[in-house]
């Protein structure tokens, strides 16, 4: 019998803010456009978010020089306020984001199915960079 282990990637950060604030800044479209990029030469000019099980989201991610853009989106499969967001991306991969309150801080843990084109470390680095941008935004707003 042959078994195939499913590879997932996990990134995490401890945010110096209470979970209610972290949840609001993570999910509000007006906030998503301010933190959802992996580097300073990219931005998120548009975000939509219907945060409920069965709801959908879409964030446009674009190079600031206008050379490239794409929509990152999916459908929520599970939403538990201030605790968990799980979704399926448009290409079928799954993601879960856990929000773990620890007093005045919140641990955010994202686990996702990698795509098959780019190396795992590159994907981990990109998602971690976005999470680091979120941490910086949440701690300064």
Task: Name the features.
41% strand; 7 strands; 141 residues; single chain; alpha+beta; globular; 3 helices; 7-stranded antiparallel β-sheet; Alpha-D-Glucose-1,6-Bisphosphate, Chain A, domain 4
Descriptive overview:
The N and C termini lie far apart (53 Å). The chain has a single domain, classed as START domain (Alpha-D-Glucose-1,6-Bisphosphate, Chain A, domain 4). The chain has helices at residues 19-27, 29-35, 120-139, and strands at residues 9-15, 42-49, 56-63, 69-80, 84-89, 94-102, 105-112. A 7-stranded antiparallel beta sheet has the order 1-7-6-5-4-3-2. Helix 1 (19-27) packs across helix 2 (29-35). The chain is 26% helix and 41% strand. The model has no long low-confidence stretch (mean pLDDT 95). The chain has 141 residues and is α+β, with helices and mostly antiparallel strands.
List segments where confidence is low: pLDDT < 50 over at least 5 consecutive residues.
Answer: none
Number of helices: 3
Strand order of the largest sheet: 1-7-6-5-4-3-2
Shape: globular
Mean pLDDT: 95
**Share of helix, binned:** 25-40%
Give the total of beta strands: 7
CATH topology: Alpha-D-Glucose-1,6-Bisphosphate, Chain A, domain 4
Q: Report the biggest beta sheet as strand number plus sense, adding barrel if it closes.
A: 7 strands, antiparallel
| Percent strand | 35-45%
Overall structural class, as computed from helix and strand content, comes to alpha+beta
Q: Give the total of domains.
A: 1
- The CATH architecture would be 2-Layer Sandwich
Order of SSEs, N→C? EHHEEEEEEH
The fourth-level CATH homologous superfamily is: START domain
Kindly provide the name of the CATH class.
Alpha Beta
Q: What is the CA-CA span between the terminal residues? A: 53 Å
Radius of gyration: 15 Å
Family: Belongs to the AHA1 family.
Pfam families: AHSA1 (PF08327)
InterPro entries: ASHA1/2-like_C, START-like_dom_sf
Protein name: Polyketide cyclase
């Amino acid at each position: 019998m042959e078994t195939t282990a499913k590879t997932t990637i996990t990134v995490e950060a401890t945010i110096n803010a209470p979970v209610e604030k972290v949840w609001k800044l993570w999910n509000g479209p007006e906030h998503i456009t301010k933190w959802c990029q992996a580097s300073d030469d990219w931005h998120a000019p548009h975000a939509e978010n219907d945060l409920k099980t069965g709801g959908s989201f879409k964030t446009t991610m674009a190079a600031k020089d206008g050379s490239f853009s794409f929509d990152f989106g999916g459908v929520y499969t599970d939403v538990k306020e201030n605790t968990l967001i799980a979704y399926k991306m448009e290409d079928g991969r799954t993601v879960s984001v856990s929000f773990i309150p620890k007093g005045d801080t919140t641990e955010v843990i994202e686990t996702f199915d990698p795509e098959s084109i780019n190396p795992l470390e590159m994907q981990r680095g990109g998602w971690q960079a976005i999470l680091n941008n979120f941490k910086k935004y949440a701690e300064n707003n």
